[in-house]
Structure formats: structure tokens, C-alpha cells
Amino acid sequence: MRVANINRKTKETSIEAEVNLDGKGLYKIDTGIGFLNHMLEQLSKHSLVDINLKATGDLHIDLHHTTEDSGIVLGEAIAKALGDKKGIKRYAHAYIPMDETLTRVSLDISNRPYLVWKVKLKVEKLGEMDTELFKEWFQAFSQSAGITLHIENIYGDNSHHIIESCFKGLARALRIALEKDARASDSLPSTKGIL
To answer: Residue 172: CB partners within 8 Å, gap ≥ 6?
Structure first.
């Protein structure tokens, strides 16, 4: 089974995450940040990756450490659960419409982490979150998961819709890229022989 558990404790946060890549999209998320909880629930539901994540952090200072560290821990858990990556589809993309918004997410589970973030938001906060923290979450996630991740909001007006479409796009692309390829179940999807 492709499951993993990661515990990360620093002076700023304490986070535990467990993932099942072959799950049903079941989740139990508690970061202490309502909007981030909602986004991670969307990620689980639409990727079909079961996610249990519990975070406590220095929210009395601000939300930065908890947001970034939750991305780190979740990325590490997915990377660990992937193991040697044999048989995965590796590449995927998703276009997500959400009312007036359209977002494209493309990814490569390459072990060459990189984030391209072409998302502009019109407001400084969503819920209690500073909107600049969303790029920080995706950056931390892509780095620790070893994923090349391109996110582009093609158009949209409502910042809630834009960010939610980014998380749902990541979810749908992950769902495809993490799947086992029936035609290459014992093969590593790379001519290098390693990912």
C-alpha cells in the first residue's frame, strides 16, 4: 500500500500528516486556519488521496509558519508514499472552471521541484489568510514532494474562486499522475532509470 506518515516538529510548528495515495478522498484536517483547512479538504476529496493532517503552530504571531510547514509535511508524506515511483503516470494537467474563473495546473512528478505561479489576486486576505501565503504553500509542497508544478489562473475575478480552483486543479492533476499505469506497472517512467 502507498501510505506514509510524517511528523515534523520545530520551535514554530508541530505537524503530523498521514496519506494514502490509493484512498477514497477521505480527510481529517486541522491546521487551526479555517480557509487552509477548506483548501486541503478540497485537495483530498478531488485527488482521492486520504489525508489526515493535524497542525499546531505559532498562530499568535501570524499564519505563515503553519501554512508553509503544512505544505512541507504534506509534500514529504506524498513523496514517501510514492516510494520508487514505478508504474506511475507521472505527468498530468487539469483545467478547472469555477464560475467565472478558469485555472490550469500542470505537473510532473520528476524529483526536480519547481513552481511556476501565475496567479494574481485582487484582495490581501481570504478569511484570515494573507493571500501571499498561498504561493508559499504551493512552493513548499512542490519542493518537498519533488514535483514540477505550473499553476496559471487564465482568468477570473473572485479571489476565493481563483485559489480554490488552484487547489482543485492540483488535486485533479495529482489524481492522474499518481495513478498506476496498467501498461507500464513495473516500469519507471523515465529513460534515466531514476526519478
So the answer is: 46, 47, 92, 94, 96, 105
Alpha-carbon distance of 90 to 173, in angstroms, equals 10
pLDDT on residue 78: 98
* Residue 185 scores a pLDDT above 90: no
Comparing CA positions, the residue from 51, 68, 50 lying closest to residue 59 is: 68
Select from 113, 92, 104, 80 the least CA-distant residue to 174.
92
Going by the DSSP 8-state scheme, the letter that residue 57 receives in this structure is E
Cα gap 168→189, rounded to integer Å: 25
User: Distance between the two ends of the chain, CA-based, in angstroms?
Assistant: 20
Q: Can you tell me the distance from the alpha carbon of 93 to that of 79, in angstroms, rounded to the nearest whole number?
A: 19
pTM recorded for the entire structure:
0.97
Q: What is the DSSP letter of 180?
A: B
Torsion of CA 115, 84, 42, 94, to 10 degrees: 60
